[in-house]
Amino acid sequence: MNLIIYHYFSLAAFTAVLLIIALSNWRTLRRLGSYPDPTHWPRVSVLIPARNEEANIGPCVRSFLAQEYPDLEVIVLNDHSTDRTGAILTELQAADMRLRVLSGRELPQGWLGKHWACHQLSQAATGDLLFFTDADTRHEPRSVWSGVAAQQAEDADLVTAMPREEVVTWAEKLAVPLVMQFGTFAFLPLALSYRLKAPTLSTAIGQYMLFRKAAYEAIGGYAAVRQAAVDDLTLARLTVAGGHRWRMADATGEVRCRMYQGPHQVFEGFGKNLFAGFEYRILPCMIAWLWLAIVFIQPWLTILAAVVGAEIALPLLTLSALQVMLALTLFGLFYRRFELPLYLIFCYPLTVLMGAALAFRSIFLTLRGRSTWKGRTLLRPKVRLW
Length: 386
Hints:
386 residues; Spore Coat Polysaccharide Biosynthesis Protein SpsA, Chain A; 11 strands; 51% helix
């Protein structure tokens, strides 16, 4: 019994630590629009890769052409789209000369498609700052202004920011916030990361990455991560490893993004990303997700067992209730901070269960060489047991 009590205590203690990290990050994570105005206006190159983005590319590009920032160029690379992406870009370019449209060159061997597109974009850029973003983002008129303000105030070589994730279907509601934001908010103590300057304690969000061009080139840019499925995370780690400075911001008031359109894209997108986030190490990925499932699901099962009449020792029931309260508080803080539907707080066991299922599916697809994205089969990576 003592061992079982210790186990339940560890679940509550682990959740309490996550809550402390989240509270610390609530204070450390500044909102993108909270910085003083820039003192000067370096040229910014907005770089957008686009492959079959006819539903997104128009609103995205128009949101950048409406920016208040005084020295801006917008470059979009049409990556062999087979829909109306190219036609829409031609119309937009004719209406505003600040927009440059590139036609993607053939994908070389050893490169992932988006990475090759971003590499071509960076080569064409003339700005002192390189702003990588995705075609499914929408930016408020001061998005670039606020990013430059943050970059100057923090003297950062990389400013990355978490947008407001728009989630519509249940697959999106359960999976996208957990994978894209919760991991950073609850597991990565930003204040400690900034002090320690350890690559493994850094991250980035590909939907908003503002690089100082000199730093981007010094770390090798996209050429250095040409086969990395999680390019943003790898670029952040290279930035810190190279002795450069990075900062994370909260862009919920400046940027919104519907990352995936429905369950199919959720499963396809995270099928390529989740295992890659563990550098294709099987046991760490499996152990981490199994532990999270135990932490956030077992206490509920214990309480439910007691409700239906099972005899549960009072210490176990008390610790389970404590863990559930801590978890509800943790997820409540998270959903409140990133302006997500608050009723999802009570769905967190399903959220974690779906995250674990997606992670195991990602391992399976990678081992079978069946990970795909936008019609391209991804290269089979080197997989390690540990």
